[in-house]
Design goal:
Immunoglobulin-like, six-stranded mixed beta sheet, alpha+beta, Rossmann fold
Length: 641
């Protein structure tokens, strides 16, 4: 039978009555409202609704609110194509829908899940027409559309209350203040914690695939760069990672230099993996009802469960209005029992996130494996609203728990009320990583393709400190890592927390450098009264541009180890640089363009595409090809702004 993914009807039932939206006689405007449900009648929030005027190609966009309701207010009468998009559902499209001043329109939309058996067209129409008649609307069926002529209505009478039609979006992102150029003579040291989080890239992808450019503060350039794998040499010495460096001219500013620093963590074979003591801490509050939240979360954790062995153990803690243990620590080879517990999860209630975190750490401690991988995996949209809910309180709680040797991985889901800033901070303070899952393919990447790096830490508190030679470098700027900056004194202070490196993980950082002797003006400070800063004569004699120092601890260690790596500029032309250099440069440019950074220089989407295509390489998993597609889509969105 022919599958149906959208039905439009000229009827909408709200609080026992229906509302006709119509243009006034004086104006050529019309309001179009509607509701989007799934095939079972559940409202779907965060659906991207696009209306395209077929004549002018002008685009109007909105999103459904938490009750599935949307509205386009005061759009011109004309012929429109409507499109309804939500991750996990088939995209619904209706073309050539004529909106005229003598017809008020309310659209009722049904989206069908990708993996769901659709009802037949006849069955779907029968159920909807029945609902329309019960609501007191009279009409006939024509091509899946029930039509009714309404008498003209004034603008005031036509407009529903604001709470009815405005999408309710409470997503939260921390303000990012981009790193500035610093004079090497006055600020010779740059210190930061590594970052292996990938959430920002996946979240940016979600925006772009919904035909929206992301919010500027949703773009963390270091997380975009580190989403991808790079071809760095494997470590061969006593340290658990290798160091890779490369330098050439800066692609977006030719008179600058770009330094590429890469770390490659050692890989672990299956037989080398330590046993895991995992606690799945799952948010089942009412805010997780959306299909791209709890249903997707359940699928993701079932993928992870299938990777576990009998030496691993899993417990499941859930929280809504209260927290509870629904599965005691269970051997990983009892997959049916673990998956059965996951399948039983249902969403409802408020969100006592702090209580859930406490219980999860308690369960992890009770089942602690010495020398093993002890970890809480928190899956949520971050919307904690009961009990301990402020970010600062939660951070303090996480900091206390990490000292007990239990790591934290945070996996974010959903949109509309997504609390990115909170989850990034918690993962940072919990000796763990932060990921965003927008679909099953990303779940596969996090929990299957990158599982060793996601779950198994090979080095903790990894810090990088770069000392610049002021005889070679006038000024420098670290690209990204704004939330990971450390004081110079923190580098040798083993009590200061920093990032963790997982098995097989790569970490990449880029510095943009203004060479010594450049006439470019960089803000500085007034001349000091009591001391004078001079360049050492030895600095002019050496070829070293900078010295890279790294400190790290073993996963169960308390004392850091030091690695020193000087860098010499061999003046390699940009065309001769590696795919590592070119592709990371392309991603950095894309991030700066999305942020509209004042440092973007000559960056352009055309340059990004050129460099990314040239450096795509083997791309076994297709991640770089997907990046190229995102850039192309962003180019179209940019033209339509």
């Amino acid at each position: 039978m022919k599958k149906l993914s959208i039905v439009l009807i000229l009827a909408f039932i709200l609080a026992g009555s229906y509302l006709a939206l119509e243009a006034s006689r004086a104006d050529d405007f019309i309001s179009v409202a509607g509701k989007v449900n799934d095939a079972q009648g559940n409202p779907l929030p965060s659906v991207l609704v696009t209306a395209v005027e077929t004549g002018t190609k002008k685009i109007h966009k909105t999103m459904t609110d938490n009750t599935g309701i949307f509205i386009f207010n005061n759009i011109p009468a004309g012929v429109y194509d409507f499109r309804f998009e939500l991750a996990g559902f088939k995209t619904a499209v209706t073309k050539g829908f004529r909106i005229i001043k003598t017809k008020g329109i309310i659209l009722k939309v049904v989206l069908v899940r990708v993996n769901e058996k659709d009802e037949s067209k006849a069955e779907m129409e029968e159920s909807i027409v029945k609902a329309a008649v019960e609501g007191g609307v009279v009409g006939g069926v024509l091509g899946g559309v029930v039509k009714k002529i309404f008498r003209p209505m004034s603008r005031e009478a036509a407009a529903p209350p604001p709470s009815y039609y405005h999408p309710f979006n409470t997503e939260e992102y921390d303000r990012i203040y981009e790193n500035q150029y610093l004079l090497a003579l006055a600020n010779p040291l740059s210190t930061f914690s590594i970052d292996v989080d990938t959430a920002s890239y996946a979240n940016v992808r979600r925006f772009i695939k919904m035909n929206q450019l992301p919010l500027k503060d949703a773009v963390r350039i270091e997380e975009m760069i580190n989403y991808f794998r790079y071809n760095y040499p494997l470590p061969s010495g006593k340290h658990p990672f290798s160091i890779y460096t490369e330098i050439s001219s800066c692609p977006w500013k030719k008179d600058h230099r770009l330094v590429h620093i890469g770390l490659q963590g050692k890989k672990l074979e299956t037989k080398e993996l330590p046993p895991s003591n995992l606690v799945f801490l799952i948010d089942v509050s009412g805010s997780m009802r959306s299909p791209n939240k709890l249903p997707l979360l359940k699928s993701a954790f079932k993928l992870l469960t299938r990777q576990l062995s009998k030496k691993d153990h899993v417990a499941i803690v859930v929280y809504a209005g209260a927290a509870g243990l629904i599965l005691p620590s269970t051997a990983g080879d009892r997959k049916e029992k673990i998956i059965e517990s996951i399948n039983r999860l249902r969403a409802g209630g408020s969100t006592a996130g702090g209580q859930g975190i406490r219980l999860a750490y308690k369960v992890a401690m009770e089942n602690y494996i010495k020398g093993g991988n002890n970890r809480v995996i928190l899956a949520t949209d971050g919307d904690f609203n009961v009990g301990v809910s402020s970010t600062s309180e939660l951070v303090r709680m996480i900091e206390e728990k990490r000292e007990k040797g239990i790591f934290l991985t945070i996996v974010g889901f959903g949109m509309g009320n997504y609390k990115d800033s909170r989850m990034e901070q918690l993962a940072d303070k919990g000796n763990g990583s932060y990921h965003y899952i927008d679909g099953l393919l990303e779940a596969k990447k996090v929990f299957i393709d990158d599982m060793r790096g996601t779950l198994f830490t090979i080095a903790k508190d990894v810090k990088i400190q770069v000392e610049f030679n002021p005889a070679k470098v006038k000024a420098y700027r670290l690209i990204g890592y704004e939330n990971r900056m450390l004081k110079k004194e923190d580098f040798s202070d083993d009590t200061k927390d920093a990032g963790e490196l997982g098995a097989g993980h790569t970490v990449t950082a880029l510095y943009e450098i203004i060479p010594y002797g450049s006439e470019e003006e960089i803000p500085g400070v007034d001349k000091l009264k009591y001391q004078e800063t001079k360049i050492s004569p030895e600095a002019f004699k050496t070829r070293e541009l900078m010295t890279i120092k790294l400190r790290y601890k073993d996963p169960d260690g308390d004392k850091s180890k030091l690695i020193v790596h000087p860098l010499v500029d061999k003046h390699i032309r940009l065309a001769k640089t590696s795919d590592n250099f070119k592709f990371s440069s392309a991603v950095a440019q894309f991030g700066m363009l999305l942020r509209d950074s004042k440092f973007k220089g000559g960056s352009s989407l055309e340059n990004v595409l050129k460099m990314a295509r040239e450096s795509r390489g083997k791309d076994a998993f297709g991640y770089r090809a997907e990046f190229i597609n995102l850039v192309e889509l962003s180019s179209l969105l940019d033209q339509l702004k």
